[in-house]
Amino acid sequence: MKIKYVVRSILFVTGLMISLSLASWVVFPKNNSVEFGMSDVNANGILGEDDDTIDVLVLGDSLSYSSISPMMMWKEEGFTAYVCGTSAQQLYESMNFLKQAFVNQKPKIVILETNAIYRSFSPIKTIENSFHRLFPVFQYHDRWKSILPVDFGGSVEYTWRDDLKGFKYSNKIDGINAQDYMRKSDQAAEIPELNRQYVKDMAKLCEENDAQMILISTPSSVNWNYKRHNGIRLLAEEYGLNYYDLNLLSEDISIDWSRDTRDKGDHLNYFGARKVSAYLGRFLKNEYALPDHRQDKNYQSWNEAYIRYQQITEQS
Amino acid sequence: MSSYFSIEYLALFLPAVLILYNLMPQRYRWLLLLFASYLFFWLISGVLILYLLTATLTTYIIALHIGRLQQQRNMLLQQVDRPERKAIRISYQKKQQKFITAGVLILLGMLIVLKYSGFIGINIQSLLNVLHLPLTLQIPSFVLPIGISFYTLQALSYLFDVYREKIQAEWNLGRLALYLAFFLTIIEGPICRYSDLSFQLYEGKKISWNQFLFGMQRIVYGLMKKIVIADRLNLFIKTIFHDYNSYDGGMIALGALLYTCQLYMEFSGTMDVIIGSGEMFALKIEENFRQPFFSKTISEFWQRWHISLGLWFKDYIFYPLSMSKPLKKLTAWARKKVGNHYGPLASGAIALFCVWLANGFWHGSGWNYIFFGLYHFTLILGGSLIEPVTSRIVSFLRINKESAPYQFFQIIRTSVFVVIGELFFRAKGLKAGIHMFITICTNFSWTSLSNSIFSIGMDRQDFIVVIIGILIVFMISVVKERGLSFRALISGQPVMLRWSLYYMFILFIVIFGAYGVGYIPVDPIYANF
Q: Are B49 and B103 in the same domain?
């Protein structure tokens, strides 16, 4: 009698999983553009890039896409970078983007913007995330409103590219007086255990894919302080990762908090991002011997994208 | 863990407790339920568990004292002659009354201090201001432990039942603690009686496969009501009730109608999850809803909506008051004066007034809740008062009361009254409720309804999904109203058809549920009461 119930249960669950898979297949975006219902389109613009063309992958929350402009680094140094940063990104989401990037790309450097490391989340979120990855219908279910004929028969083909390569352009100025936000401290801000584990797992995944993961704190007078710096420094030492805190480089990156921020020191604006990207590009090129593709004909799309990027940023 | 619809509850807590429950020897299962209940409470309210412990210990000690007095009295009664018995009864009755009064004061006192002190303080301050008295009160504010309104009523019902000798006082503290803290009933009820629930909880009955499946089905049904209907309606309702000044009567009336629908779907959906979870543990938790929107009168509505609360008020407020000596005297006097119909209504009205005042207060510390209670009191009493007149009109017009059109008219009329009541219930205070009601009466327009309906959080497709969801609930309600079990009907079908229906229903929830980015699920509405 009991075996009968077990067999029935297995059959029912199998049927349910097949149904969920079929539904997932239908609602999953068939292209990586807004029109096809893709979420986080700018970050997912990497899916439209040619295989094995990205040298540097950037992960993190809004600080990553506000501070780092890949196009600026392309223009100045000639290597390719892509920011897969999303608003309030949690580390399990960073891990998703990392895994997704490794499918078609072989970045040499993976930058994790450290503010995400302090974003705590419930272990339940990781269960939800696994469900979303296993059955995308849970993430994309709302696409029923805009379902297209191609969703029922077409194959997945990513063709959309972001000219800003994940960077968010903003020329808004809303300054603040933030001279001493990096006052020295001996204390270290605590990092949640689950987050530490995720950093460790991401570093391991990078190693397995011949990439080097580095930790970078981009300037933010609201989000960053010396206690957090100490916390990340200790974490980096523990896991053998390189850590660079750009908040401490006021001489090399002279952020003017009265005009380089769009929201009173929370995020940098285009002017601040330009300073950070100029320094970071130079530093990465020298420190990690990144290639220069500017004359490579396989990378001409980047030169074309730069012209469009210039048109967007010229208004500043 | 935020609600019975959270992943924490459905995917972790419930399965874990179920598995452990099955692995436990039958005699220890109640201990697991007790541990799980306290863990559940702790996860939601943390250190506020101390209030629950205080209420439990108070109830336990007072009930034991009352029980002990009853035993002493019974022993004495056996030893003495008939003439002395009355004196002994009266003497022990008085002693018991002291204990029950202390119990009621402590339990209600905790509830009033925690839940109503802010409301009382604000109103006293307003009164002082009106009287131009230069006094400023420090108005306290407390964080409420989850389910305080529910476990307090359960504790009181237990004390009253012991006092009335319907049940014996429980000597096993753990058993009483489990009854008061049981994780399935503590957040939103139903308000169960000790005699109905405690034995089942203690028994630790073996779970049957069919009950387990029925329980799962009931949970999925509840999920549909909550995620597909109530949460999707939230997009529209929160805008209307928040910015009510920006909308005309048509939109506000629609908002009130949809809120009534949302409240029913959210609350009855939660009950489905609770009763379904109970079935998985082989527990029979009493129904709290019985197709309320098929009611023909407001009285009937309250016998079908939040049944356990209505029964509590009936048993512990209405009947004791109606049977009290002063009201009995009043009834006798009134019968002579105004006849057999209106005579009992006088004392009934007093008892009814107390019930509905308590009902309003129980729902929340706001004038709109008190108005909500008194509104229903007026409707019920008014219905009784004009009943002879309406009967005469109906017979004069030769209307068959049993005819479908007349019954349909009664159902619609009752629903309209209910929707008006819920408008005040949901409004941001009594003033807002009155303003919204006046707007409906004075500035109603069909045009704005047709022009703006799809521009306030819900588009045409959202409405279609909600309507489909409501039709499913309606269809199942019709089957239940006819005394049939929808689940039994389905389980009698061939396996292919049955499973296909299950898959379709689950996919309907997964695809059309209002969850994820862009949606804010409605909070458990009754958990705040």
A: yes
Quickly tell me which residue has 């908040």 as its tokens.
A247
Please tell me whether residues B43 and B167 are part of one structural domain.
yes
Give yes or no: residues B410 and B483 share one domain. no
* Phi and psi at residue B59, to the nearest 5°: -60, -45
Give yes or no for B209 touching A (CB within 8 A).
Answer: yes
The residue among B180, B204, B228 that closes a domain is: B204
B11: which chain A residues are within 8 Å (Cβ-Cβ)?
124, 127
- Residues of A within 8 A of B512 (CB-CB) are 141, 144
Beta-carbon contacts of B297 under 8 Å, excluding residues fewer than 6 positions away, are B383, B410, B414
Residue B182 shares a structural domain with residue B235: no
Does the distance separating the beta carbons of B507 and A20 come in below 8 Å? Answer: yes
DSSP SS3 for B515: coil
In a domain, B271, yes or no: yes
For B322, the domain range is 297-426
Do B54 and B143 lie in one domain? The reply is: yes
| Distance of alpha carbon B176 from alpha carbon B59, whole angstroms | 9
Using CB atoms, pick whichever of B11, B502, B512 lies closest to residue A127.
Answer: B11
Same domain as B254, residue B194: no
- ipTM topping 0.85: no
Measured CA to CA in angstroms, residue A188 lies from A229, B17, B97, B309, B403 at distances of 7, 39, 61, 53, 78
Q: Please state, in angstroms and rounded to a whole number, the distance separating the CA atoms of residues A68 and A86.
A: 13
Q: Give the integer Cα–Cα distance in Å for B454 and B20.
A: 49
- Domain-ending residue, one of B397, B426, B455: B426
Whether residues B477 and B352 share a domain: the answer is no
Task: Sort out which chain A residues have CB atoms less than 8 A from B231's CB and list them.
Answer: none
Q: Per residue of chain B (529 residues), what is the pLDDT tens digit?
A: 778 998 889 989 999 999 999 999 998 999 999 999 999 999 988 899 999 999 999 999 999 999 999 999 888 888 888 788 888 888 889 999 999 999 999 999 998 888 888 778 788 888 888 887 777 777 777 888 888 989 999 999 999 999 999 999 999 999 999 999 999 999 888 999 999 988 998 988 888 888 898 999 999 999 999 999 999 998 899 999 998 888 888 899 999 999 999 999 999 999 999 999 999 999 999 999 999 999 999 999 999 999 999 999 999 988 888 888 888 888 878 777 777 777 777 778 888 899 999 888 888 778 888 999 999 999 998 888 888 888 888 888 888 888 888 899 999 999 999 999 999 999 988 899 999 999 999 988 888 778 888 888 888 999 999 999 999 999 999 999 998 888 888 888 898 999 999 999 999 999 999 988 777 766 666 555 5
Q: Could you give the number of structural domains in chain B?
A: 3
Q: Which residue has the tokens 């990497």?
A: A46
Q: Where are the domains positioned within chain A?
A: 2-313
Residues B186 and B236 in one domain: no
In chain A, what residues touch B518 (CB-CB under 8 Å)? Answer: 142
Please state, in angstroms and rounded to a whole number, the distance separating the CA atoms of residues B424 and B431.
9
- CATH top-level class for A2-313? alpha beta
A141–B512 CB contact, under 8 Å:
yes
